[in-house]
Amino acid sequence: CWIFCKDRRSGLILTIPLCTEQTSMEELSATLDYLLSIPSEKCKARGFTVIVDGRKSQWNIVKTVVLMLQNVIPAEVSLVCVVKPDEFWDKKVTHFCFWKEKDRLGFEVILVSANKLTRYIEPCQLTDEFGGSLVYDHLDWLNKRLVFEKFTKESTSLLDELTVINENEKGSQADKDRSSESNIMPSFDPETVLQTGHELLSELQQRRFNGSEGGGGGTAWSPMDDELLAQPQVMKLLDSLREQYTKYQEVCRQRSKRSQLEEIQTKVMQVVNWLEGPGTEQLRTQWGIGDSIRASQALQQKHEEIESQHSEWFAVYVELNQQIAALLSAGDEEDLMELKGLQQQLSDVCYRQASQLEFRQNVLQSAHEFHMTAQDLSQQLDGLLGMLCADVAPADGAAIQQTLKHLEEKLKSVEGALQSLREKGQVLLDQMSTQTSFSYGKDDVSIENKENIDHIHNVMEDMQLRKQRCEDMVDVRRLKMLQMVQLFKCEEDALQAVEWLGELLDALLKTHIRLGDDSQETKVLLEKHKKFVDVAQSTYDYGRQLLQATVVLCQSLRCTTRSSGDTLPRLNRLWKQFTVTSDERQHRLEMASAFHTAAEKILRESPELAELMVDVEAYEEVETVGKGLLDRLTVPVIFPDGSEQFFGSPGDMAPSAESIRERMKLVEEKRFLQEEAEQRLDEEALETGPRES
């Protein structure tokens, strides 16, 4: 069924299509009641023209429907047009005459074919199925009608709820009662209802425009009165709804602000209560610094757990601070002081707790560094003590110097570590004194810190004593090693003296072979030999002194030497060999000097001394010394151990021997001449004697 358009009396047209299936009279009656409730009383007063389309139904159903109209809308019905099928019902069936029942029914009923319905109703008010030109979509109309009714119902209910909510809010604000707030959530979403209303209003306005202008080239239709009346009704509802919704939004904003403020107050107090309660209590129980690296690491791990718990509350603080800042930037004057007070209280507590956490972390970090430095120093002292307690068996002086250098480096490193320990300990002590004034709210922190302070002092004093003991041992070891350096140096120099003495002996035997060609040269060689012997004597004495020093150093070091044992015999052996050789050289030079002196005395000739006679003993002395010297040149030097050694080689001694022989030959010739001269003198004396007699 549907109501659309108007008849020639401006009454509404009600169309009731009947189908071949059984029609439920109850449903039809309910549908008619619904449709008849739509038009206004003014429209209904103009009456209805009812079209009962019975082309697809049976006569008894049509009859029942017509009679039912008498009970539903007898006063409003002006005309009932029953559209009969092309094949008319049986006359027996249709013997019932509606016109005769007009008085009883209260309206006129006519039977008419569909193509002749235009006699009673204008074609523009009829759809094409009744031969008209009206464009009509019943489903579209029904959907729009349902939307309108739904909007009306929801908007009316929403208006009532919003009005109650807004009025209650006014009373709540007047009473300053913020503790008991009723539920302010309406049954329908205002935004959705407003959107539905705007869409419905737009559709109604569009239909009205199309109805007045026409569209699509078809016959225009006039909107129904209910559609025309729906527009201002929708507009009025929308206006009222917007007004109440605006107030409702303000109410929600105010309540949201109050709720947010109360929530912030609750969270602030939760944060403050936890930080000042369990959080502070956790810090109160953590005051130690540990007595080792492991203990300090355990305390740091425990502190990290405490920091982790605090971090969760600090995150809540950051969030709350942002929320409070947002409320302050857009808050009312009455809330500003309260918000600022909450913000200040929260900030004070959080910053104070964060400072305590940071201070505790710094103390633990300093304690960890102190224990690490103490452990490192202890290990260095242990290593140094191990070096000092180990036996020293260096191979040479260079090894001793290297060991001394390593020892000094170790000691310097220990001194640096001890200085670092003092500095870190002082930093920790300063923090301990600050902690005493900081106190975490405790009255007996100074008593608890006394253990930490005593521990720090004890560690530093213990390390100082250990370092002092090591320094004393280093001094002893340094002296011992310096003595060992001196010992090695003496042994090395003694060996060098032996080598030098050996070289002097070798030089004496191999290069000191000349005896001089005259007495003057021989005297020079004698002087050089004495100096050479003095050098050898100094070398021997130097070696002896060095070896004596090694004996004293070995006694001081309580050790036996490795080289002085055979160095002294070597030195003495070489010195004896040198002494024998130098004595032999001395004797040869002295014999050569005597030989040359005697020979030169004989061979010294001058015109005045041409006839000077020489004693026979002088000639014999030259001959004897010369032969002895020549014999001595062929004899080797015999050392105390029985070994023999010649001066130079036979070829080296040949020039000296030849020079001696030449001089002996000259002396012999001089002797021969002297003997001839003496014989002549004797002969002359014999001749002179007889004449005188």
| Gap from first CA to last CA | 227 Å
The coarse overall form would be: rod-shaped
Secondary-structure element order, as H and E?
A: EEHHEHEHEHHHHHHHHHHEEH
Q: What is the makeup of the main sheet?
A: 5 strands, mixed
In what range is the share of β-strand residues? under 5%
Q: In terms of structural class, how would the helical and strand content be classed?
A: mainly alpha
- Uncertain stretches: 176-181, 212-225, 606-610
Strand order of the largest sheet: 1-2-3-4-5
Oligomer: single chain
Number of strands: 7
Radius of gyration: 74 Å
- What is the mean predicted local confidence, pLDDT? 79
Q: What percent of residues adopt helix (DSSP H or I)?
A: over 70%
Tally of contiguous helical segments? 15
Structure notes:
The chain has 693 residues and is mainly alpha-helical. It has helices at residues 25-36, 41-45, 59-72, 102-105, 138-175, 190-213, 225-284, 293-330, 333-389, 397-438, 445-510, 519-557, 564-603, 616-633, 650-692; strands spanning 2-6, 12-17, 48-53, 77-83, 108-112, 637-638, 644-645. The strands form 2 sheets. A 5-stranded mixed β-sheet has the order 1-2-3-4-5, covered by helices on one side. It has a two-stranded antiparallel ribbon with strand order 6-7. The longest helix has 66 residues, at 445-510. It is rod-shaped. Mean pLDDT is 79; it is low at 176-181, 212-225 and 606-610. This is SEC14 and spectrin domains 1. Residues 365-475 form the SESTD1-like spectrin repeats region domain. Residues 15-138 form the CRAL-TRIO domain. Residues 169-180 have a biased composition (Basic and acidic residues). Keywords: Repeat.
